[in-house]
Design goal:
A six-stranded mixed beta sheet has the order 2-1-6-5-4-3. The protein has one domain (2-169): Roll (Nuclear Transport Factor 2, Chain: A), CATH 3.10.450. It has seven helices and six strands. With 176 residues, it is an alpha+beta fold. 38% of the residues lie in helices and 32% in strands.
Length: 176
């Protein structure tokens, strides 16, 4: 009975994680000097990623761009999406077409420089069309807490629908 109560309590506590801020979701920092133990690394990758995602959701192009390292790579189901985030211009252009909202239902630090993020992404286009993506991403950061790799897994049909809509708005022809 006691184990069932603890399990129920854990579920109730976790269900509140969706509404928590980057501060509340981050892992506890050890009391040791990071330079002495590990050398140079991002000490708070969860916070760094969540703060960048908050910038994206609030459509702050400069802030969003600052969270990405040069040479950033985005994979969808193991395939390079060739997403080039070249600075605030990328996000300023994206924000003219879409609004992004992330409903995060799981976040965890899984290694020194990697976090796991599970979420539902709502993409609303300027046309009023709304698309949903159910994804899980493994995100790697560098020693400056900038994202170097976004390795997401999700439904290919959901991703293609969004890609096709972007191409339609920009006047191109969707790929098969």
């Amino acid at each position: 009975m006691r184990n069932k109560l603890f399990a129920l309590l854990a579920i109730l506590i976790c269900s509140g994680c969706i509404e928590q801020t980057a501060d509340e979701l981050d892992v506890v920092e050890p009391a040791v000097d990071q330079q002495e133990v590990f050398g140079r690394l991002c000490w708070r990758p969860v916070r760094a990623v969540l703060e960048t995602l908050e910038c994206v959701q609030s459509e702050d192009a400069a802030c969003a761009a600052d969270g990405y390292a040069p040479g950033f790579v985005k994979l969808h189901n193991g395939i390079d999406t060739n997403t080039v985030i070249s600075g605030p211009e990328y996000w300023a252009g994206a924000f003219q077409l879409i609004d992004i909202d992330l409903d995060i239902n799981h976040v965890a630090r899984v290694s020194r420089d990697e976090i796991s993020l599970r979420y539902v992404e709502t993409v609303t286009f300027i046309t009023g069309d709304v698309f949903y993506q159910h994804e899980h991403a493994l995100i790697t950061v560098d020693e400056d807490c900038k994202m170097t790799l976004w390795d997401q897994y999700g439904d290919n049909a959901e991703q293609k629908a969004i890609d096709d809509k972007v191409i339609e708005i920009l006047g191109g022809v969707p790929q098969p």
